[in-house]
Queue: 4 jobs
Job 1
Amino acid sequence: MENKPNAATDLTIVADSNIASLSEFFNNDTLSGTTGRRVRMIKVAGRDIDAQLLADTQPNVLLIRSVTHVNADLLKDNDSVRFVGSATIGTDHVDQDYLAARRIHFANAAGCSKHSVAQYVLGAILTLRPEYWQRSSTPPTLGIIGLGNIGSTLAQYASSLGWQVLGYDPLLPASNLNNASFAQAIKQSDVVSLHVPLTDKANATSAAGSTNHSSHASEYPTRHLIDKNALDAMPASTLLINSARGPVIDAAALQADIERTGRQVVLDVFEHEPQIEEALLSKLAIATPHIAGYTLEGKLRGTQMIYDALCEKLSISPAQSMHQLLPLNMFLWSELQAHPDRLVKFYDIMQDDQALRATLAEGQVKAAAFDQLRRDYHLRREWQF
Ligand SMILES: NC(=O)C1=CN([C@@H]2O[C@H](COP(=O)(O)OP(=O)(O)OC[C@H]3O[C@@H](n4cnc5c(N)ncnc54)[C@H](O)[C@@H]3O)[C@@H](O)[C@H]2O)C=CC1
Ligand SMILES: O=C(O)C(=O)[C@H](O)COP(=O)(O)O
């Protein structure tokens, strides 16, 4: 029997069109349960999701990625949203305290692309320093700042290559991995890789006089964690990689540091993205448009996780699995480990670097070009670890 629409249970969803497989996960069949629920899906570019759209469409569900800032400004004219899902790991674009105060359920996709980002970092290191593939009596030392899902996964890959790892994470207990101070990690490593959330000083009073109690406040703030002092303490030969959030590094200090030291730096994220100034871009060893997590597996896992969270909120059983949508994956870490010369076959990071640099115009990468590269990105495949 045709399910009759039931306004009480029907859903209107506003979603970032850059979320993978939206229609396969969010439709009448996958969200109906036994209610006959009908779904109205409104797909919009993430940066175009604004207060006016939400006031006009009054969605019950908001599905986003990192470019949509969810806060009082966005939701002030909407009282219908009851669920916000971010198909991302990072949550610095979401005011979770505000959502909690509005009793709006929030879910992100913690860990969804941990292997993707770790493999991106490995690809960058081994592209710039292929000698690190060789087992040696003096293996390279990798400093990992932030030992959560991505940092600890990267440490696994590094250990499987026989590298030394210096890990620093002030919010986790000391361990075999969390084995160094910040100073030791940045002074004693051949490579330093950043894997922290973007946070600001807790209880800091802003210029406007407000005190920062937000969910992104920390006693160990990461904004400009890598500043002039940190860069001055880092040996000039140390390769620095940022695939966390752009503002973790002070871009002006970084530019001066590279001019002074000639340091090799890899950035997947930029303090002022989506704009990138040529003056910085031209000094980077590798530059990519925030795509470290952009594998088919990573993005599908993100969609799966917020779909599962919505199903739980609706008290229905999930009716869609990413495994039905994934083509066969023959990218095997074991094969790559045995034949490191095949790295470029798996992922040629320099193609992404060249594609970004090709968009330079009038001394900068423009926001529209940065966003288009990400929108049209051919999703990589994760190596099966
Ligand atoms: N470039 C890209 O495409 C992607 C970037 N990311 C970014 O990477 C970040 C890390 O991701 P996950 O490891 O999955 O997050 P996670 O939350 O699992 O781990 C973050 C770790 O950083 C630690 N930390 C916090 N403040 C610190 C500080 N001041 N110094 C050292 N460690 C500190 C925390 O204790 C935690 O263990 C995300 O927050 C996101 O911003 C995530 C996915 C893709
Ligand atoms: O998951 C995160 O955190 C990320 O940084 C994502 O890779 C960001 O991708 P978009 O949400 O900007 O598409």
Job 2
Amino acid sequence: MAIAELSPSYPRARVHPSSLSSRFSNPLLSRCRFVPLRPSRPNGVLCSIAPNQIQVPVAPPADSAGKKECFGVFCTTYDLKAEEKTKSWKSLINIAVSGAAGMISNHLLFKLASGEVFGSDQPIALKLLGSERSFQALEGVAMELEDSLYPLLREVSIGIDPYEVFQDVEWALLIGAKPRGPGMERADLLDINGQIFAEQGKALNAVASRNAKVLVVGNPCNTNALICMKNAPNIPAKNFHALTRLDENRAKCQLALKAGVFYDKVSNVTIWGNHSTTQVPDFLNAKIDGRPAKEVINDIKWLEEEFTNIIQNRGGVLIKKWGRSSAASTAVSMVDAIKSLITPTPEGDWFSSGVYTNGNPYGIAEDIVFSMPCRSQVCDFCVLLDLLLRFSFSYLLWRNYFSPYFREMVTMS
Ligand SMILES: NC(=O)c1ccc[n+]([C@@H]2O[C@H](COP(=O)([O-])OP(=O)(O)OC[C@H]3O[C@@H](n4cnc5c(N)ncnc54)[C@H](O)[C@@H]3O)[C@@H](O)[C@H]2O)c1
């Protein structure tokens, strides 16, 4: 028997757990949010219900496979009359992660939920997309997330239909794909994974935010990003990125090792081309402690013959040693890539990302996704508006709701 206690002045309801067996199949509960642990009250789900939707919910039967989309703490009773005081003025960011039950996600999701990526005052909702085969594992992932008691993690949902999972997402981190095994090149995955990214592109086009940022990780990521972008014409092409930040990080590490410095001294490293063995890690423009890398290292033979080869084959060597492709360092590089997109790039530096080539200043063929140096910058108008609004009440609205739309402007260096 499902119960909803309704307050006429405040459209929130106390919902009995028996009505929560599936939050997606129950329209009344379609806006439930995970409420994090507080000492004074139990964790639970907060639901906003529009007055014209008020009715007693009926517990829906579990579907034929007996699957549920919410778990334990994400489904339990919560006193919805209690005032929900958010600790922050920032509005929730909806983040979709595909391949959420995979190795890379296993590292990434916890970084996202901890606030390491979008900031310690930024609440997030995680929408996890898996494949039919990985659905049970996806439930396991959600269980680990609830056990972690992240205060910024306000909502978790799981599913295997991209049209449901991508609804209103502002970020789509597309990891889910068949990974490369020993002896395989990334291009071998093209047929299998191309279809996945065409379908996901269509889904993003139909239901995601019009300004969604899409970071494609599943290989071959450049081609997959292009396929995804072509299937999502409603989303600006500049919002699509293929992850080459791992290669940049690997190149920075090798240059630092060779120069005998810590890697925070290495800057201006570009990965040109694809995330594959054909990529070109650029040591000519790289800097170590502000000086050209080739002057500091002073071993042009190593730079020309060994360095490039090491970076091109680092992933393959790792797979041979470990029997699977890199996961933790990939998740770290995704964090770096996202931060680079939402933070203005320091003067004189740049970062690498696979971007759509139309209009590029380097003479690279048009209509492909190719890694090149990029910068994020705030538009001049936004800097001015920021200054003007700083001392008014509207500043909070501007900073938390509107300025993110202007901040993430990426231009090629
Ligand atoms: N760009 C890079 O720098 C980089 C680095 C490392 C790995 N990768 C690529 O990332 C991808 C994932 O790697 P991983 O180690 O996490 O693999 P994994 O096998 O551990 O996880 C992949 C997950 O994706 C799921 N999946 C498969 N098809 C799906 C679909 N259509 N929709 C949603 N989920 C789906 C699988 O069930 C699995 O759980 C691989 O393609 C790998 O080659 C890219």
Job 3
Amino acid sequence: MPYRLILASASPARLSTLRQAGLSPEVIVSGVDESQVVAADAAELALQLARLKAATVADGLQDDPAPTGLPSMIIVGCDSVLELDGEAYGKPDSAEIAVQRWQAMRGRTGVLHTGHQVILDNGRQLGRTASTVVHFADLSDAEITAYVETGEPLVVAGAFTLDGLGGAFVTGIEGDPHNVVGISLPLLREMLLDLGIAWRDLWSTTR
Ligand SMILES: Nc1nc2c(ncn2[C@@H]2O[C@H](COP(=O)(O)OP(=O)(O)OP(=O)(O)O)[C@@H](O)[C@H]2O)c(=O)[nH]1
């Protein structure tokens, strides 16, 4: 059953993660103002933002519901935040803030939460958050300065990457690694299964 899979995200890491897993998503960026959303905790914030992104893209498509009730289109929205000391952190707003974040993170442990919202064109939808514990190396001030100067911390949630320059600064994780990069493949598989869609049916036939 060929599905139209839409990734409601500008994240290059989410797109490459899905492609490496054999999927061929279209990208439609939601462009939502993330500052408008507040939530009780970091995990809920990530989920609410994922929901807003997926719903915004779904509204823009406004396709008629699948007449047979069987879905033909799958929209996936995600949002990632780092929880540290009970606070939720997205992308740092400046290099100075990125330095402050790392001075607080180094040698400590945070939780990277990624909210996932899946909306089908037959009206069904599911939202869940995956959380991965992340242990950070005890960076020196010079390392923090050098890392922030690369610019990488400024464009990623939590001011770090697992699969980029930041990889040297993550000493370990507990949970799904892809969730840290921005989209949890095992969680997405489970959500689609619960929505009646088999993961293998999303593998691109043009592999
Ligand atoms: N490559 C990589 N990217 C990461 C990592 N951690 C977080 N990110 C990225 O940081 C960004 C988090 O910001 P979000 O607001 O969730 O997503 P975005 O990139 O702004 O894109 P939208 O979904 O359109 O809002 C995403 O692009 C994540 O893929 C990581 O370990 N590796």
Job 4
Amino acid sequence: MKKLLLLTSGGDCPGLNGVIRAVVKAAEHDGNWQVYGSRRAYCGVLEKPNDIIHLTSEVVAGIHVRGGTILETVNKGNPTAFPAEIAGEQVFIDRSDELISTIKQLGFDAVINIGGDGSHRVSQHLFEHGLNIVGVPKTIDNDLYGTDYTIGFQTAVDTATEAIDRLIPTAQSHNRVIVTEVMGRDAGWICLHSAIAAGAEVALIPEIPYDIEAIKAKLTSRFDKGHGFANIVISEGAKPIAGGIVSKQSNERGYENPVLGGIAEQLASQIRVALDLDVRVTVLGHIQRGGTPNAFDRVLAAEFGVQAFELVKQGQFGFIPVSKDGEIKPISLKEATSEYRVIPLEHSLITSARAMGMCLGE
Ligand SMILES: Nc1ncnc2c1ncn2[C@@H]1O[C@H](COP(=O)(O)OP(=O)(O)O)[C@@H](O)[C@H]1O
Ligand SMILES: O=P(O)(O)OC[C@H]1O[C@](O)(COP(=O)(O)O)[C@@H](O)[C@@H]1O
Ligand SMILES: [Mg+2]
């Protein structure tokens, strides 16, 4: 029997468990592979004693309907810059060679890593250093290059849309402006999808730095017409034309990404000062990462899981299945990590939003 190591890395999202189940089921159906899971991404391999569990069909039964990941995950354990303490000093060390040799010593023939852009940059590095690795695209942000959809995105859009829908009646009742801040890092996919789905008047995405004057004009004309409320959706990574993103550095050891959040409050203050309107802010935060995966993400998880296992069987390492123009097909991890996937300015989402009179802060 051959041995396959499975892990989830980066932020969790709905649908991860569906991929785990699909890989295990496909492997059992094939009959030549045993599947194991490293807990907390590669930490399960690097920790002593290691924390690796055998994944059987009994272990994964019914997990595809549950959010999160039964393997747990981390977004601060980069094996190429792993936090350590040497002689009382806090340092970062490259543990990738140790990681690869431990995986080989443990008898694993291949690895499947379910991750996003950050994780697959690590996967590509490990592949170049001799690891037999295949990726699977996940993240609520939908910002992985080469795929139209990542697992978790559609569920996050559903969650954000439902939340905004719930905010509208209260905004209407109080004649308020509501500003909803959604996740997505430097890509506006969640924002623009949920803004269109919920019928927002204003959507502010990182791809289009916003002009506060355009927003003020939109709100003024809307309230002048007698409409009693306004619905603004803003990405956590949005920024004004004169200014930057609102972010801070995490004080968690090994956490590499800037922590985004606070732009909605900044915008709300500007609106309050400029216009005589009542404004309320809701930051959706990790609610967008939770909940049961919707049917789309469950199906995508199943297809990606099966395809990833196929790639392993065929020895096609350094690849990742993607969803492109309605087809599931493999591309290289090198290609998937060659760019960061933002909304192209000519995308139909943007032109449709504009055509319906939605203000994009321009
Ligand atoms: N397999 C892994 N094991 C441990 N930590 C990882 C792994 N892959 C990535 N990381 C860490 O997590 C970060 C990626 O997190 P994040 O950007 O949130 O994830 P992603 O974009 O993959 O969803 C990397 O910068 C790195 O610090
Ligand atoms: O869970 P954390 O560490 O606070 O990270 C929050 C970030 O993770 C995300 O939810 C998902 O991003 P990743 O999929 O890249 O991990 C971002 O939208 C958000 O900025
Ligand atoms: Mg990411």
